[in-house]
Amino acid sequence: MIYAYCVRRAGEPGPDAELQGLAGRPVRLIEGPEIGFWVSEGSALPATPERLREHDRVVRAALRSATPLPIRYGTGCFASEADAREALRTRSESLRESLARVEGRVEMGVRMEWTPAEPAPEPSRGSGETGVGTEAPPGGRAYLEARRAELERAGSLRAAAGAALDRLEQELALEGVPAVRTVLPRPDVAGLLAHLVLRSEVQRYNECVTRAARAMPEYRITVSGPWAPYSFS
Amino acid sequence: MPADDRPDHPMDSLDRFAAETDLEIWGGADGEQHSLVDLVNRVLDKGVCITGDVTISVAGVDLVYLGLNAILTSVATARQRIDRDAGPRRHLPEGGEQER
User: Fold this and answer.
1) Residue B93 and residue A202: Cβ atoms within 8 Å?
2) The pLDDT of residue A117 is above 70
3) Window B:2-31, CB contacts with A under 8 Å
4) Straight-line distance from the first to the last Cα atom of chain A, in angstroms, rounded to the nearest whole number
5) What pLDDT is stored for residue A4 in this prediction?
6) Given an 8 Å threshold on Cβ–Cβ distance, is A72 in contact with B93?
C-alpha cells in the first residue's frame, strides 16, 4: 500500500530523508512527468489527532519549499506504486490546474468567536416552563412550541453569525484574495475565514487581521497559519 | 504589495509577527486545543481527494470517517449538543417517541 500526503510539481524539492510521516514512516517521492506525490509505504490508519498532525507535518514540510496541494487525510491511498503513477497520469490535468491556483500562496485562517463564549443562552423556556421536570409533563403542543422557539433561535444565531462575518470581511478589506467562509461551524464560533494569501503578503494579512480584531472587540478574533492550501484544493 | 527584504518564507515572517503582536498564531495562548480544531477542520475536511476506483475500497473511507466522528465530536461539543437536544425532549409525554 502507498499512502500519499500531497501533490507537487515535478522537479520541486523532494522530502528530506529524515522526514517522518504517518506512524514515523519514511516519506519518499513518486514522480510522474509533470506532478508527483509525497508518499509513505503502508496503508491509511484510523484518524487520530496524532495521525492528523503527522499527515500535516509532511504537508507542511513540503510547504516550506513550494506550495503543495494537500491531500485530504486518508484519501490518497493506492494498492501499489503503479496505481499511484496511474493516478498521476489520469489526474494530471486537474491537479496541475489546482497547483497553479495555489502557486506562491499559503492558506491563512481567521476564527471569529463570540465573546462571551456563549451568545446563545440556554433556551429560556417560556413562561411557566421549567427545564427540569418538576411539573406534569406538558403535551405535544408545548413540545412543538419549544421546538419552534429553538429553531427560531438557531436561525437568528446563524443570521447574526453571517452578519458578523460580513462585517469582518469588510474590515479585512482583502479584495481579490480568494476566500472560503464557514458560518457558525459550532455554536461558540461565529465563523471561519480561510484566505489564499501570497507568501509575500502574509505580513500584511496579519496586519489586516490585527486591525479588524481591534475594530471588532466584541469578538475574539484569532489568526492561524500559514497552512498548506487545504481549503483551496 | 511590493517585495521587500523579508525572506520568502511565511513561517519566518509569521514568527516575527507573533513576537510583535498580541494575536495568536497557531492557537497561541490556547495552545493545543485551538490548533487541533483548526487542524481537524483542514486535514480531515479539506484538501484534494485522490480517490481512484480501487483506492476507495482499499483505503476504507468508512474507516477514516469512523475515526473522524470519534474525534470531531469533542467532549464539550457533545455535551452542548446533548444538553440542547435534551431540552425539548424532556417535555415529551410519557410513551412519546424518545430518540435518545
Assistant:
1) no
2) no
3) 3-4, 6, 8-11, 13-14, 16-17, 21, 23-28
4) 24
5) 95
6) no
Backbone torsions φ then ψ of A28, nearest 5 degrees: -135, 175
A138-194 per-position pLDDT tens digit: 788 999 999 999 999 989 999 999 999 999 999 999 999 999 999 998 888 999 999
| Per-residue pLDDT at A98 exceeds 90 | yes
Interchain contact, B93 vs A203, CB within 8 Å: no
ipTM of the predicted structure? 0.80
Query: pLDDT tier at A203 (50, 70, 90 boundaries)?
Result: confident
pLDDT digits (tens, 9 = 90+) for A28-51: 999 999 999 999 999 888 888 888
- How many other C-beta atoms lie within 10 A of the C-beta of residue A212? 22
Residue numbers of A between 116 and 145 with CB closer than 8 Å to B: 122-123, 125, 129, 131-133, 137-140, 142-143
Report the residue of A30, A129, A230 to disrupt the B interface, i.e. the one with the largest count of B CBs within 10 Å.
A230
DSSP letters of A103-162? TTEEEEEEEEEESSS--S-S----TT--SS--SPPP-HHHHHHHHHHHHHHHHHHHHHHH
Which residue is listed with cell 425532549?
Answer: B89
